[in-house]
Amino acid sequence: MIGIILASHGPMAEGLLHTSEWFFQDQKQLEALCLTPDTSPEMFTERLGEAISRVDSGDGVLVLCDLLYGSPCSCTANLLSGNVEMITGMNLGILLELLGSRENGTPDIAALVGTGRDGIVNFKELLAGQTEDSQEEDFF
Description:
Blueprint: E1 3-9, H1 12-20, E2 30-35, H2 41-55, E3 61-65, H3 71-77, E4 84-88, H4 92-101, H5 109-118, H6 123-128, H7 132-139
Parallel strand pairs: 1-2, 1-3, 3-4
């Protein structure tokens, strides 16, 4: 089973981990790393490397980072290899899809990215595209 690391500026990664437990209890090979103002990039990279070692059972590791080109992303980029991959712009939709599918083999990275993108919508515009009858039925 692929290991998962959530990496963010501040406590976002821990929040996503705790929220995911509402849907998937007792997840193994899952860790959150939160960059704080007093953590140097070198220290964060070292902590990432240690976390990768802990969650990798031989099937690789997927690191979800909060922000493209942010420090967690840049630090993870230093550790990318054949068994370590990264998706930036992490959100709860991506994490839940990953947790639900990772026991079935290697996750489809492109599909996970699509899940994240598909979950970002202007809900008012989405509702405007529905008929009045279907709005109440489909969303409420």
